[in-house]
Design brief:
The chain is an alpha+beta fold. It has eight helices and five strands. The protein has a five-stranded antiparallel sheet, sandwiched between helices. The longest helix has about 55 residues. The chain is rod-shaped and about 85 Å long.
C-alpha cells in the first residue's frame, strides 16, 4: 500500500472534525459527501472537480456528490458507456490513475467523448469497507500528469471517510427493512392468534385443532393463512359492531 504523507493537510483534518457526530440520514450523508468532494478539490493540487459515485436506490450507478457540472457530465458518460476509470476503481476495488486521458487505451469510448470536457488526468479510489466496494471517489484535472503517489495517499484517506458514510447509509436502510419485516411478521402472528381464538370459540376446538382447521381452510380456499386470518378477524369485528 502506498504510504500516506507524514502530515495531514488542514483541509483533511477538517473533514474528520466536521464528520464526527453527524446524524445518520441520507440528507446528512449527501451533505457530508459534498463536503468531502469540495475538500478533495482543494487538497489535491491541480484538481478542477471531484465527485462520488455510488449505487442508487434503484440499483443504478449515480453521482451522489459532485463539485460541478463537468464532473456530472464525465461521470454520466461512464454510466452510459459502462466504462471509465471511476467504474474500474469501484468494480475492481483498486486505485486508478490516468496521467493522460487522450493517450490511455483502457476506456477508448469514454476517453474519446470526455475529451470535450477538458479533462486530462484522473485519479479515482474505491469506497471500501469490510472488503466490499460501495462506490468510488474521483478527482479530475485539466492538465496531464497532475497526480503522483502523494495524491494517491491523500485520495485514499478521502475514500476511507466517504466509504464509512456510504456503508452506514446501507446499514441504516437494511435495519429499516428488517424493522418493517419484523413489524409485518408480528402483525401476521397476532392476526393468526386472534383468528385461532375465534375458531376455538365458534367450533368448540382446542388450540391445536383450531390451528389445523385454519390450515385446512386456507388450503381449501387457496388463500394464505394470513389472509384467511385477516378475513375472519374482520368478519368477527363486523358481527360485534
Amino acid at each position: 500500500m502506498d504510504a500516506f504523507p507524514d502530515s495531514t493537510p488542514d483541509e483533511l483534518t477538517a473533514v474528520y472534525a466536521r464528520m464526527s457526530g453527524v446524524l445518520l440520514s441520507e440528507q446528512t450523508v449527501a451533505t457530508a459527501l459534498q463536503l468531502i468532494t469540495s475538500l478533495a478539490v482543494d487538497t489535491l493540487p491541480g484538481s478542477i472537480g471531484s465527485g462520488v459515485s455510488v449505487r442508487g436506490i434503484n440499483g443504478d450507478e449515480v453521482t451522489s456528490a459532485a463539485t460541478d457540472r463537468m464532473v456530472e457530465r464525465a461521470d454520466a458518460l461512464q454510466y452510459e458507456l459502462g466504462q471509465g476509470p471511476c467504474l474500474t476503481a469501484w468494480h475492481d476495488g483498486v486505485i486508478v490513475r490516468v496521467d493522460d486521458v487522450g493517450a490511455d487505451p483502457r476506456w477508448p469510448l469514454w476517453s474519446a467523448r470526455v475529451d470535450s470536457t477538458g479533462i486530462r488526468s484522473v485519479l479515482s479510489a474505491p469506497l471500501v469497507t469490510a472488503d466490499r466496494s460501495w462506490g468510488a471517489i474521483k478527482v479530475y484535472s485539466d492538465r496531464a500528469g497532475a497526480y503522483d503517489e502523494t495524491e494517491v495517499g491523500l485520495l485514499r484517506r478521502f475514500a476511507a471517510q466517504a466509504a464509512i458514510l456510504v456503508a452506514n447509509v446501507h446499514t441504516f436502510r437494511s435495519a429499516e427493512r428488517l424493522s418493517d419485516n419484523l413489524k409485518r411478521a408480528l402483525h401476521t402472528r397476532d392476526l393468526i392468534a386472534t383468528a385461532k381464538g375465534i375458531v376455538m370459540l365458534r367450533e368448540q376446538l382446542d388450540p391445536d385443532q383450531a390451528m389445523r382447521w385454519l390450515i385446512e381452510q386456507s388450503s381449501l380456499s387457496g388463500t394464505t393463512l394470513a389472509t384467511l386470518a385477516e378475513t375472519l378477524v374482520e368478519a368477527a369485528g363486523d358481527e360485534a359492531g
